[in-house]
Design a protein that fits this description.
With about 180 residues, the protein is mainly α. It has one domain. Helices cover about 60% and strands about 0% of the residues. The chain has eight helices and no strands. It is globular, with a radius of gyration of 16 Å. The mean pLDDT is about 85. InterPro entries: DUF3038 (IPR021399).
Length: about 180
């Protein structure tokens, strides 16, 4: 495992940058939850396996448990808590990397054949959950149906990268892009 989590940032993010980082990470959590049946027990086990303070898990509000559009669930997370959440999300995605790879391969095949990927069971279920949960995101710009589908596919492909050996680093670097 890399040591980026121990590396302090020379310039901490502004509140706006931190919000953008939280928003991006929340969308990665959404994509993960739509493909993988993530529950609180999985998050807790991942935290235990990674020796991360389990009180963090209590702060994570899974998309499937969000009934109202009141506040952004990750908004109260500190930068260090976001780093820990990155570890947890990537750890879980690594355990399901074959499923993620299969989903991305299927997406590529269906797209290459000019067929609707949502007609397959795996991708159809993923997209259905994504469409259901995404509107529960507070302060989110209303996306057209096509934009929502494109976001779902992009995040699915991103999961492939975050499920790899350097997934932690890739996700952290993606979040740090909001600082530039």
């Amino acid at each position: 495992m890399s040591t980026w989590g121990d590396t302090p940032l020379t310039n901490p993010p502004t509140p706006q940058q931190l919000y953008q980082m939280q928003t991006h990470l929340d969308l990665v959590l959404l994509a993960s939850e739509c493909l993988i049946a993530i529950d609180s027990d999985m998050l807790l086990q991942a935290a235990l396996d990674l020796d991360i303070d389990t009180t963090l898990v209590e702060k994570i509000k899974l998309w499937s448990n969000r009934d109202t559009i009141e506040t952004d669930p990750l908004q109260s997370f500190t930068l260090e808590e976001l780093r820990s959440l990155i570890l947890i999300i990537c750890y879980i995605n690594q355990q399901y990397k074959e499923l993620i790879r299969r989903a991305v391969n299927l997406l590529e095949q269906m797209t290459a054949q000019d067929k609707d990927p949502a007609k397959t069971t795996l991708l159809g279920n993923y997209l259905e959950k994504f469409r259901y949960f995404h509107p529960k995101k507070p302060n989110e710009v209303n996306l057209s149906s096509e934009q929502l589908v494109q976001l779902a596919w992009k995040l699915l492909i991103d999961l492939l990268f975050y499920s790899g050996d350097n997934g932690y680093d890739r996700l952290w670097l993606a979040l740090l892009d909001y600082k530039s």
